[in-house]
Automatic annotation (TrEMBL):
This is DUF5009 domain-containing protein. The keyword Transmembrane applies. PANTHER family: LD22376P. InterPro entries: HGSNAT_cat. The chain crosses the membrane at residues 65-87, 99-117, 129-146, 153-172, 211-232, 244-262, 268-293, 300-322, 358-380. Keywords: Membrane, Transmembrane, Transmembrane helix. The keyword Transport does not apply. Residues 21-238 form the Heparan-alpha-glucosaminide N-acetyltransferase catalytic domain.
Length: 388
């Protein structure tokens, strides 16, 4: 069994969905998922170290890179998983059907997380992280199957330049001018109009960070991964692959920093400059991982993150679901007030160990990650890989 984002762990077989092994990609995926869990589960949302928070609007923090890194990895994985299907009659042999099924499964898993535990159709958030992963996976898989690398590069350029022009030149209905402000930009207008405020990210109220229009440049992030995967699969020496990928990553990230001067780096809008910065840095990180792990055969500290990587979607989904279930269990305090079980455990066993609340909050997040590591390590040792 294997998840679509774990396809790089399989050996090459006759199936067109099979793939060759790339341990560095599993490591990079696992590192990214572990970071996701860390930043999504602080002990106390009121006390968080600045690098573990998102930038308020323009700009970026290390936390802002986690989601685009994951989408980039999805793109790389697609090239390994679907390489055998290129040039085949994909409708006839069911490849497209399998891609659509996986995308729909991911979308519904994300929607279930948004529904739980209230299941209120009138206010449920429709977009989300898993929903965006589903859409990017669907688009990039079909693009990979039906286009050449050169066409993929052209499409990437068109997406990024087109999004920049649309966001900075098209007047926003009801506002009258193009702008990049939080509630009056064109992407926010799309979310209010086609999703409605009742079904977007509640803290933002009238727009969604995983909204409709910003999904287009997110597909560009996936395409950067697709192009990277094609480069790594090519018949070149390992040194050439690493040098080329590292150099390209530095240049792409630099282009993002230059573009930032007139199209600001912004994760919530997933601006084109953000795509290039995050994608370029992801290329650099993967080049280093590939050189150390797959070429130099480094293994120290690798397998724990591989355990996260081979069950990436499973741990992301359950790490979002289980805390919500725990908080449905109320524990009565001595003063008569009640706390959810997760908060009760945090206050009872983590907070008393630290004088500084921000360190206690970080310790709570690390504890959550370590608990998941124990579970995933057991699954990895038993070769339990849950299929999505």
């Amino acid at each position: 069994m294997q998840s679509f984002v774990s396809t790089s762990t399989a050996n090459v077989q006759n199936s067109p969905l099979a793939s060759s092994r790339l341990l560095s990609l599993d490591f990079f995926r696992g590192l990214t998922v572990a970071a996701m869990i860390l930043v999504n589960n602080p002990g106390d949302w009121g006390h968080i170290y600045a690098p573990l928070e998102h930038a308020p609007w323009n700009g970026w923090t290390p936390t802002d890179l986690i989601f685009p890194f994951f989408l980039f990895i999805v793109g790389v994985s697609i090239t390994f998983a679907l390489a055998g299907a290129k040039g085949q009659a994909t409708l006839a042999n069911g490849i497209v059907g399998k891609i659509v099924k996986r995308s729909l499964t991911l979308f519904l898993l994300g929607l279930f997380l948004n529904f739980f535990p209230k299941f209120d159709v009138s206010t449920v958030r429709i977009p989300g992280v898993l929903q965006r992963i589903a859409l990017v996976y669907l688009a990039c898989s079909l693009i990979f199957l039906k286009t050449t690398p050169r066409q993929q590069l052209y499409l990437l350029v068109c997406l990024l330049i087109g999004y920049w022009l649309v966001m900075t030149q098209v007047p926003v209905p009801g506002v009258g001018y193009a702008n990049l402000n939080p509630e009056t930009n064109l992407s926010a207008w799309f979310d209010r109009t086609f999703i409605t405020p009742a079904h977007v990210y509640k803290p933002a109220k009238v727009w969604d960070p995983e909204g409709l229009l910003s999904t287009l440049p997110a597909i560009g992030t996936g395409l950067l991964g697709v192009l990277t995967g094609t480069w790594l699969r090519a018949n070149r020496s390992a040194a050439e692959k690493v040098a080329g990928l590292f150099t390209a990553g530095c240049l792409v990230a630099l282009a993002g920093l230059i573009w930032n001067s007139f199209f600001p780096i912004n994760k919530a809008l997933w601006t084109s400059s953000f795509v290039l910065l995050a994608g370029g840095l992801a290329m650099v990180v993967l080049a280093l991982c590939y050189w150390l792990i797959d070429v130099r055969n480094a293994r120290w500290g690798v397998l724990p993150f591989v355990a996260f990587g081979v069950n990436a979607i499973t741990v992301f989904f359950l790490s979002g679901l289980i805390p919500r279930i725990m908080n449905l269990i109320h524990v009565k305090q001595a003063d008569g007030t009640e706390l959810g079980l997760k908060e009760y455990l945090y206050r009872s066993f983590i907070v008393p160990l630290f004088a500084d609340p921000i360190n206690a909050s970080l310790a709570g997040a690390l504890t959550f990650v370590l608990i998941w590591f124990g579970i995933l390590w057991w699954m990895y040792r038993k070769n339990v890989i849950i299929k999505v």
